[in-house]
Amino acid sequence: MAAFRTVLAAFALMLLAALPVQAQGSSRPTVALQGMDVVSYFRDGGPVQGQPALAQDFDGARYLFASAENRAAFVADPDRYLPQFGGLCTTGLSVGIIGQGRPDLWRVIDGRLFLFSAPGHERAMGREAEVTARASHIWANNRPALPR
Asked: What three-state secondary structure class fits 79?
């Protein structure tokens, strides 16, 4: 009986030791834009919630789409739809402040998606050429580590 308990205990320890490795290997990418369909920002009516069944992983993130058509458009040209500056707040970045943009505070300007971190920040985009030029300069020269 003691031998059986020893074997059982050894087996349990081996099983427990294997669990963290399995958990790490099965981790999924973070859902981008809180699950909003990134292509829908460019469509009439604005952004809509994506569906987990229509997911596409890209560059370490999982994007959800509201339709197969939107998913196919993204797969064909992801750079066309991705938020500028890795999803950071455009206005904040233009003055050197790093803050994650919110998917509900956005503007599409010249075919590019810009996110903002606080209500009112998108109003600065009335000076969009100046703001995007400063943000682009900071992004190109000092690309910050993106928060995840």
From this structure: helix
- With beta carbons less than 8 A apart as the criterion, state whether 83 and 113 touch: yes
- Backbone conformation region of residue 85, classed left if phi is above 0, alpha if psi is from -120 to 50, else beta: left
Residue 71 and residue 54 share a domain = yes
Q: What is the pLDDT of residues 52-104, one digit of tens each?
A: 999 999 999 999 999 999 999 999 999 999 999 999 999 999 988 899 999 99
Strands (E), the chain: 30-31, 51-58, 61-65, 102-109, 112-116
DSSP 89: B
Domain that holds residue 37: 29-81
> Model's pTM, two decimal places?
0.75
